[in-house]
Amino acid sequence: MRSRLVLLLAVLPGFAAAQRQQPAAAGVASITTADVRRRINIIADDSMLGRATPSPQLDAVAAYVAGEFRRFGLKPGGDSGTYLQHYPLEVLRFDPDSATIRIAGPTPATWRSGQDVLLVDGQPPAGGTSASAVVITGSSQTSDTLDPAAVNGKVVFLAYGPGVNAVAGKVLPLHPLAVVLVAGFPDSIWESLPGHKVTERVRNPSEGGGVASPAVFVVRSATAGAVFSQGGLSPDSLRAWGDRSLAAHPLSGVTLQLDVHEQVLQHASAPNTIGILEGSDPVLKKEYVLFTAHMDHIGTPSAGEGCTASGADSICNGADDDGSGTVAVIELAQAFASARGRPKRSLVFMTVSGEERGLWGSAYFADHPTVPIADVVADLNSDMVGRNSKDTVAVIGREHSNLGTTLDSVAAAHHELNIKPVGDLWPQEGLYFRSDHYNFAKKGVPILFFTTGLHPDYHKVSDSPDKIDAEKEARFARLVYHLGMAVANSPQRPKWNPQSYKQIVGADN
Predict the structure, then answer these.
(1) So what CATH class is 100-260?
(2) What fold is seen in the domain 26-90+269-508?
(3) Most buried one in 162, 187, 214, 489, CB count within 10 A?
(4) pLDDT tens sequence across 474-503
C-alpha cells in the first residue's frame, strides 16, 4: 500500500498539493462578498441606532454575534459559561445650578457653574473639597518635568490651545484634583461649550484602574486673571510664559473650594462578545491568537458621543467604523470553524464595546481576561476595513514585531487576493493609540492593526452600509485568515522588536 501511495503522489503532484490545501481552502471558501454585505446591513442598520455604549441596540448586536459564534460551534469565552463578558458603567446626571467654586483669598469670590465656569469632562470630587491652586506655564516640547508635589491634589490652571494635550500629558499622571482650562473664549464659542445645561454622561468605574480622571473645567481669561492677581501672578501669565520651560507657579494664599455634585441615575453595563476555537496541538492549544474588532459606534446625538445630525438623518450608523471590523471577525470565526482541520493554537474571536468612549471593552478584557493574557501570542485587530483603495490595507504596528514579516510572506503567497499590506499612511493621526489593539500591546501582546483608512464619512451619519466595498473586505478577511493560520501553526511565538517592547510595554510596566 505504501509504495502505491508514493507512486500516486509522484504521478499526480498537483492532486496531492490540492489535498494538502483543502483544510485551508474550505475555510477561505466560507468568506464571501454576499456574506459580508448581508452582515454589514444587519449590524449598521438604522434600527441599531448607531450602537452607542451602553444601549439596547449595542446589546442586540452583541447577542447577534454571540448567536453566530454559537452556530459555528465555538466555545463560550465570556462570563459564567456564556459568550458575553459585561463590564460595569454608571449613568450620571449633572445640574450646573447645583455646583459652585468658591475662591478663598484676599478678595473672596464665587464662580457660578454654567455661567462663570463650565464643567466639561472628568469626575468632580465628591462633596465639597478645598485645595490650593497652581498655574502651569511653558512648553511641553522641552524635557522638563514637573515636581509631583506641586501638582498632586491641586487645582491646576492650564492655557487652552494647540499644545494643551501635550502639556496635559505631563500633568495628569501627577494626579491633580481638577484641571481648569483658560482661554479668551468669545461669546460664540463660550455659549457652544458643554456645561451650561443639565447633562447626562456615562462613566466607566474601571477606567484607569478605577482611578477617576480629574474634573476638567473651562473659564475665560478675565475670570482666571482675577484669581491669578490675588495669588501674586500676572493676569496674563499663561500667555506671557507660553514659550518658556515647563514650570508650576503656586497661587499664594488662594484656596478653591469645589462644591460639585453628580447624581447616579443608573448602574448599567456593556458587553464584549467572545468565542473560542480550541487548537489541535496538546501543548500549543494552551496559547491563543486573538482576533478583535469593536462593535460599538457613536449612536445618535442624544448619546453624547459626538454624533451630529445632517438634515433628517440623525443616526451615525458606523458601517465602516467598525461594523466592517465586526463582520470581519464573524467571517473569520466561521472560516476557521468550517475548515477541515484546526490550527495548533487556540483562537479567540472577540467583538468589544466602548471603543469610541476610550477603548473601554478591550481595556476591561485585558485587565480581566477570560484566557490567560500571558498566553495570548498575538492580537490581529480590524477597525475600518471596508473602504478606499481596492488593493491595499494599512497595517499599523508592523514594525514593532516579526508579525509584519509573517504578514508579508503570507501576502506574497496569496497574490490571488490582490491585497497589498502597506505601512501607516496617516502617521499624524496617532492611529497606534486609537484602537483596541493598544490595550493588548501594553500588556506585552504583539499586535497588528488593520485598517483601510480614514475617509470623509468618519464619525458622520454618512458612514452607511451602501458605501462598504464588500468584495474588498472579503478579500481582506481571507488574507487575515491565512495570516491567522500561519501564526497559530508556527512553532515559535511572535517576537517583539526589543526597542519597541521597551517603548510600548516597558513604559507601562
Answers:
(1) alpha beta
(2) Aminopeptidase (3.40.630)
(3) 214
(4) 999 999 999 999 999 999 999 999 999 999
